[in-house]
Design goal:
This protein has helices at 3-15, 41-48, 65-70, 93-101, 116-125, 140-145, 168-172, 190-196, 215-222, 262-270, 289-296, and strands at residues 30-35, 54-60, 77-84, 105-109, 130-134, 153-158, 180-184, 203-208, 227-234, 251-256, 277-282, 301-306. It is an alpha/beta fold. β7 (180-184), α8 and β8 (203-208) form a beta-alpha-beta unit.
Length: 308
């Protein structure tokens, strides 16, 4: 996995497959604080004193029961996701269960494919939402094993490439009702479109690239069946005409380390209307008051993810 793709994982969980082919409600900025550990008591107090509500994306490393249960003490938390590189163990299962009962979501980041015992543990905990972030495509046996996994779950594939024909059997064996999210740094070609159209699941694609597809490449993208979400990450403002190929797709624009200008926002909205457009600001610098006011006036949903 390239360093760029690993960086993408940090917000892959936040995005998930949330941008679907239904209208997206516009509102004020939806803030998410990313913390690369579970908050200590002082941080819990500091977060709880912040005005308003926000989301939290946390990472758990060798967490003890007290570390996990402390998460529930954060006041003003609208949504909490916890990323972990291993699945809940028996000695912390009760704490994970209490988190799950309060709506905390689990993200298996580099945790691999759960084995039977881990699937039983996940079913007992019953997270309201579970995301598996994988760096490779499953074998047929692994995919069949996931059919025992209960609840609302999805898979994010942060791989070096789109699936190839030899990956088809494993992907087909995954449950038809569980959406597949592909994260990469290039646009799908004809062969990728052809293969994706053979899969029964709903799909989402996220591409991190400052170059947009050619007219031919855009036609492949627009002909992928059950493509319910497309996200594009750039670190600069595209030319207004570059949005044209995505007119008929529900689209999220991830702005990496910059705040788009009013003219760039309007160009993005003009090609698809306000109902099927979303902005994600992935920047760690604090927004100025004028930037907040300006972004809050945007007639589309805006998410802002940043470090504390």
């Amino acid at each position: 996995m390239t360093p760029q793709l690993f960086g993408i994982l940090l917000t892959a969980a936040l995005l998930g497959t949330s941008t679907v082919s239904v209208p997206i409600a516009s509102s004020s900025i939806q803030e998410t604080i990313f913390v690369d550990h579970l908050p200590d008591p002082l941080e819990v107090t500091q977060f709880s004193l912040l005005p308003g509500v926000r989301n939290y994306l946390l990472q758990a490393r060798n967490a003890w029961v007290d570390d996990l249960e402390r998460v529930l003490l954060i006041k003003g938390a609208q949504r909490i996701q916890i990323e972990s590189d291993h699945f809940p163990a028996e000695d912390t299962a009760s704490a994970w269960k209490r988190l799950a009962d309060q709506g905390v979501e689990f993200v298996g980041l580099r945790a691999g494919m759960p084995v039977e015992q881990e699937i039983r543990q996940l079913n007992a905990i019953r997270f309201q939402k579970l995301t598996l972030v994988l760096s490779r495509f499953p074998t047929v046996d692994e995919a069949k094993r996931l059919k025992a996994l209960q609840g609302d779950w999805s898979i994010t594939f942060a791989t070096a490439s789109f699936p190839k024909f030899e990956d088809k059997a494993g992907l087909e064996a995954l449950p038809a009702g569980s959406p597949l999210f592909f994260v990469t740094d290039y646009w799908p070609a004809y062969t990728h479109m052809d293969l994706l159209n053979l899969l029964p699941q709903n799909k989402a694609i996220r591409v991190a690239a400052n170059f947009f597809p050619t007219a031919e490449g855009a036609s492949y993208l627009n002909n992928i069946k059950k493509l319910n979400s497309l996200a594009i990450q750039t670190d600069l403002e595209p030319q207004p005409t570059e949005w044209a190929p995505f007119k008929n797709l529900p689209l999220t624009w991830i702005c990496k380390n910059f705040i788009p200008s009013d003219s760039a926002l309007q160009a993005f909205i003009d090609t698809g209307g306000t109902q099927f457009r979303k902005i994600v600001l992935d920047t760690d610098r604090q927004l100025t008051s004028s930037e907040r006011d300006r972004i809050n006036r945007a007639p589309v949903r805006v998410d802002w993810i940043h470090l504390p």
